[in-house]
Amino acid sequence: MKTYTAHLRPRAAPVLVKDGFSWGALLFGCLWLFAWRAWIPAILALAAGVLIGALTSDGARVALEFALAVLLGLVGRDLVGWSLARRGYTLAHVVAARDGDAALARLLAARPDLAAGFLPPGTAR
């Protein structure tokens, strides 16, 4: 089972962020952060990549870019959570499930009041 953190904000759909290593952040770096709307970490990662490219020699550049990619893979999801907190979301629940859909179903089973905020009328129980 995977664990997901549920971030909530009034009158908004809950955002589920999977815990653990992120292959997307490792492979795509700041583009992955931009896709998650983690603007500040994405800009800082982009700036770090540009500085590594501009200020280091070839051998060190490869090692530092690899280290930056691994670091983003390790902490990418935490940076997304931090960015959500800056946008007014609060970490409200930790949900264990096999995938994101099952995690959302478990969250809504535990907190049926959340369903009324983003599901069409008549679909929430």
Features:
about 120 residues, alpha+beta, single chain, about 60% helix, three-stranded antiparallel sheet, 6 helices
- The gyration radius over C-alpha positions equals 18 Å
Class from helix and strand fractions: alpha+beta
User: What would you call the shape?
Assistant: elongated
pLDDT averaged residue by residue = 92
Number of strands: 3
The number of helices is 6
Order of helical and strand elements = EEHHHHEHH
Strand content: 15-25%
The helix content, as a percent range, equals 55-70%
Instruction: Summarize the biggest pleated sheet.
Output: 3 strands, antiparallel
| Low-confidence spans | none
Strand order of the largest sheet: 2-1-3
Distance between the termini: 26 Å
Describe this structure in words.
With 125 residues, the chain is an alpha+beta fold. Helices cover 58% and strands 15% of the residues. It has six helices and three strands. It has a three-stranded antiparallel β-sheet, with helices on both faces. Strand 1 and strand 2 (15-18) form a beta hairpin. Helix 3 (39-55) runs antiparallel to helix 4 (58-86). The longest helix is centred in the middle third of the chain and has 29 residues, at 58-86. The two termini are 26 Å apart. The mean pLDDT is 92.
